[in-house]
Structures are given as C-alpha cells and as structure tokens.
Specification:
Elements: E1 8-11, E2 28-29, H1 33-40, E3 46-53, H2 56-66, E4 74-81, E5 87-97, E6 102-109, E7 115-123, H3 134-137, H4 162-183, H5 186-196, E8 201-204, E9 213-219, E10 222-228, H6 237-258, H7 266-273, H8 283-298, H9 308-319, H10 326-333, E11 341-344, E12 347-350, H11 362-376, E13 382-386, E14 389-393, E15 402-407, E16 415-421, E17 424-430, E18 435-438, E19 441-444, E20 458-465, H12 468-481, H13 483-492, E21 496-501, E22 509-510, H14 514-517, E23 518-519
Parallel strand pairs: 1-15, 3-8
Antiparallel strand pairs: 2-7, 3-4, 4-5, 5-6, 6-7, 9-10, 10-13, 11-12, 13-14, 14-17, 15-16, 16-23, 17-20, 18-19, 20-21, 21-22
Helix pairs in contact: 2-4, 6-11, 8-12, 9-10, 11-12, 12-13
C-alpha cells in the first residue's frame, strides 16, 4: 500500500466549565449558495455548480501553498460564464472557524486570479457576525494570492469580531489558492467545459480510493468530525460510511443523556430530582458520573462535575447584563464540592442544591464511547474530534500517527505547533474561545471551582492522555491549577501537557515528555 494522504486535525480550546450552549450552534443562513455565487461573480450570466474532489497530491500541494492543514476533501465551486460564453470566474465555498464554529464563505475569483467578491453564507455564533457587512468584505476586492491580507494592517478589523475577521482572511487565501491549483490554466478549461454542458451540477475529479471518509455534524452544541480509513484489505466504502454514522449516533445518544440544556435529558431529570433525596441514576448516567467523580478526586477538585450551580450563577448574571455579586458567588460555591456526592450501589446522594454538570468530562466521555463503536466495527484508523476533544485511533496508512495542530491561545490566528499522536487522546482548554461579554468587559467561561471567578493567569492548556475523558479532565484541571500543580496532576495520570501563560511566553510550562510528541516548528 502506498503512503496515505496526510490528515490533520485542529485542537481548538473550548469552554471547560460550561457545556457548549446549543444557542451558540444555531446556524444563521444569509444566502443560498447559488445566490451567493451570483453576487460574487457580477459579470456572470449563468453559473453551474461543480463538486470538485481532491486527490492526495492536490491536498498536499494546497497545504504547502497555504502553510497550514486542510480539512476539506474537496470543494463546492460555481463556474460563471458571461453572455458570450467566456469565463466570468469561479466562486468557491469555503469554511473557516471563527471563535468555535465554522463560518461559511463564498469567494468569487476572476479569471486573472483576483478576488471579485466575498459573501458570508452562514454564521453559527452569537457575536462577530458583522463580518458579513459589505464595508468589511469589500476590502478584499482585487486581492490576489500574492497580496498581504493581515488583520489590523491590510484589513481593518471589526472591534469585537477579531477572530471572525481572521477567519475571513484565511477563507480568502484558501479560495485563491484553490483557484490557482484547480482552475487556473488547464483546470479552468476543464471546469468551463463541464459548466457549458451542465444543466446544474457536475462531479469533477476522481475520489482518491485511499482517502479517508470525513464527516461533520453539529453535536453537543459544537462541531463534531469523524475521519476514518477503511480497514486494510477491505475496500468497502459503504461499510465505512455506516461506521461513521454509528459513531455520530453514539455521540448523539450521550448528548441526550448528558445535555444540561435539554429538559428531557437524563442529567436534567436527575438534577430536578436531587432535592427530594437519594436518586438512582440510569446505568449509563451512573457510569459517566463515577468516571467524573474519579477525576474530581484525582485533580483535587479542579475538574468537578458538581460545578453546575456556579455555571448557572454566571449564566443568570450575564443574561442580566452584569457579573455575579460576591454574595451570589459565595452562595453558588457553597453548592459545589465532589466530596459531598456519594454514589454507591447505584444510589446517588448529593448536598442540597447541588447541580451536576458535564463541563469537564462530558465531551471526552462521548468521544471514548464513539471510538468503542468504531473498534467494534473493525475500524483501526480514525480520528474523532468533538469541539477540540479528540481521540486518534491507530494512524493514517503509511504515517506514524495523526497530526493535530495546536492553536496559540495568545494569538489565535497562529499555530504553536503540531502533535503526532497514535492511540492517544488530545484535549485543550482556552480562556479566549468562549467568553461572557458584559459591557466593555470580556470574561472567560473557564471558571475556577475554588474561587468562582474566571481563570486569568493561564491562557490555554493542552493534555495528551490515554483516553479522551482523561485528556478532557486534565486539560480543565491544568487551566485551573496552573504551574507546578498542573504538571504534578498530569504526571500522576501518565499524561503529557502544555500550559500557555496569559502574558509571558517565558512562563509557558510543559511536562518532560511533551517534546517527544510536539513539533513547534511544524506550523
């Protein structure tokens, strides 16, 4: 078997003391794809949609051109024709992550390789959507692949939407690079020939038989992707598709069990029943809770499933346009503490007013269960990524492991480096990805369960561990503990990790074995 294509994942820090709110994952669709394509190709009298698949060679070439990993296995493109049949350009649909969720752009590129227009098709977060306004997007007109598009220098950014502005710059560069590789010179002739005879949609390119199946859905209020290769010697794409479906179904099952935002979830029903006395959780919920309580003990309470009252305190206050008062925080903290929860013989007893929350372990637990499903179906090479909590099963064919890019929390538009992992999990936490905005203040949703206030000293943490639930809990605990205490907890768990100081790179800290899995030069 020849060496398989290199596949990357991005470890994006996520909120660690708040489950991803489903409201944040709502999709605001502003334009249909065809309408967007016509807007960014104003000279086109007609457009035809192409679904262009990438070969392994093309993927490598694009990654080299962009200097970063490419998640897509192909692109939707609209080829525009003028009234006389001449080329009007190509509109490319591209996705780039803003804060946490992907923003869907359509970028029009004229035959000379210059930006003819940019529009936002869909936005999925609660703030930052101003990037869709014309006064921002028209800054890209006329740019080509050699033009600098740096936020704050070449592109005037929008206050409060800086990460979305960076996403727009990356989307424009990606579209220009795709146009250069696939549609310039001979590529354009192929596309135009296809478009000239197309009633609507044409498939262009050949699927690489050794390329992975890559699927993405919104689950647990965040983006979930499953990337898997067919078992060696078993080229059954339908079976591989079914395995991906089964992994998604397992994560969806745990969303129905653990979501604190669904009144019908098992966790919500348990929390509602706790004030009345001892409760018997379902076996599934009890299994997660035992694991979460175990990690609470191992981390000295820095990863605590009883932090729900504290999270709810902050959510209520922020909804009222303020931060919690000291009295409110003290009252919430009085209801936090894993030592006052007892689960034995299937019966749960908890301190009055306590709320259980899957904040620090829920996503990792769901990832581990999805990996179990894939293993049971014979899959030996897969990457399951749930909002930055991921497990690398085996390795891509011909590779030593899965490549996981780690974003710099001090400069989110940059990468710190790349992890290479095999049969290990990676989780990250960050103080910039999810924030509560109160007036002019921005408060990280990473709450210290000992003080009740947002973590400020550590900008982000990454943990590499034997399981996703372990990595999830350890990344959370590292953010809260910081410094030597965090490294001691990681070492005790047999994990590796990195802590990024909020201000000074000289104070960044890593475990002794971090350098063995991390390449800071591979950006």
């Amino acid at each position: 078997m020849r060496a398989g294509r290199e596949v990357w994942a991005l470890a994006v820090p996520a909120a660690v003391v708040a489950w991803a709110d489903p409201v944040l994952a709502q999709v605001h669709v502003f334009l249909a794809r065809e309408e967007g394509a016509r807007r960014v190709l104003p000279g086109a009298s007609r457009v035809a949609e192409l679904r262009r698949h990438l070969s392994a060679t093309e993927t490598s070439a694009l990654e080299a051109r962009l200097g970063c990993p490419l998640d897509e296995g192909g692109f939707h493109a609209f080829v525009g024709l003028e009234a006389d049949g001449g080329p009007a350009g190509v509109a490319l649909i591209v996705n780039e992550v803003g804060k946490v969720q992907p923003i869907t752009f359509v970028v029009g590129v004229d035959p000379a390789g210059r930006v003819a227009g940019v529009e936002v098709l869909a936005y999925r977060e609660e703030i930052g959507g101003e990037v869709r306004h014309e006064r921002f997007l028209r800054q890209y007109l006329g740019k080509d692949l050699g033009s600098p598009v740096r936020v704050g220098r070449d592109i005037v950014h929008i206050t409060g939407a800086t990460l979305s502005c960076h996403a727009a710059c990356r989307a424009v560069r990606k579209a220009l690079a795709v146009h250069e590789l696939l549609f310039a010179s001979g590529g354009a002739a192929v596309a135009l020939e296809a478009a000239a005879h197309a009633a609507w949609t044409v498939e262009v390119g050949v699927r690489d038989p050794e390329a992975p199946v890559v699927r993405t859905l919104v689950l647990m209020g965040t983006m979930c992707s499953v990337c898997l290769f067919e078992p060696e010697g078993e080229k059954d794409r339908e079976a591989t598709d079914r395995a991906a479906d089964a992994a998604f179904a397992e994560i969806a099952r745990w969303e129905a069990i653990l979501s604190p935002f669904r009144e019908d979830s098992e966790l919500s029903r348990l929390n509602a029943a706790l004030p009345a006395g001892p409760v018997r959780p379902t076996p599934a919920l009890g299994a997660w809770l035992l694991e979460a309580l175990g990690w609470a003990r191992s981390t000295g309470g820095a990863s605590d499933p009883t932090a729900g009252a504290l999270v709810e305190c902050w959510r209520r206050a922020v909804a009222a346009g303020r931060t919690p008062t000291e009295a409110e925080r003290r009252e919430a903290l009085a209801r936090v503490g894993h030592a006052r929860v007892h689960l034995a013989d299937g019966l749960l007893e908890a301190h009055d007013g306590m709320l259980l929350d899957p904040c620090a372990t829920g996503k990792g637990w769901a990832v581990d269960r999805a990996v179990e499903v894939l293993r049971a179906r014979g899959v030996r090479s897969a990457l399951v990524n749930l909002g930055g909590d991921l497990y690398a099963l085996g390795a891509p064919p011909g590779r030593p492991g899965w490549r996981v890019a780690v974003r710099d929390p001090r400069r989110p538009e940059w990468l710190q480096g790349v992890l290479t992992v095999r049969d290990r999990a990676v989780a990250s936490s960050g103080a910039y990805e999810r924030v509560w905005v109160v007036g002019a203040g921005r408060h990280a949703q990473v709450l210290d369960p000992f003080t009740g206030v947002p973590v400020e000293a550590v900008a982000g943490s990454v943990a590499v561990a034997a399981s996703a639930v372990a990595a999830d809990a350890l990344a959370t605990a590292s953010m809260v503990l910081g410094g030597d205490a965090a490294r001691a907890v990681l070492a005790a768990a047999g994990a590796e990790g990195l802590l990024v100081d909020a201000l000074d790179p000289a104070r960044d800290a890593a475990t002794p074995g971090w350098e063995a899995v991390f390449d800071p030069a591979a950006r």
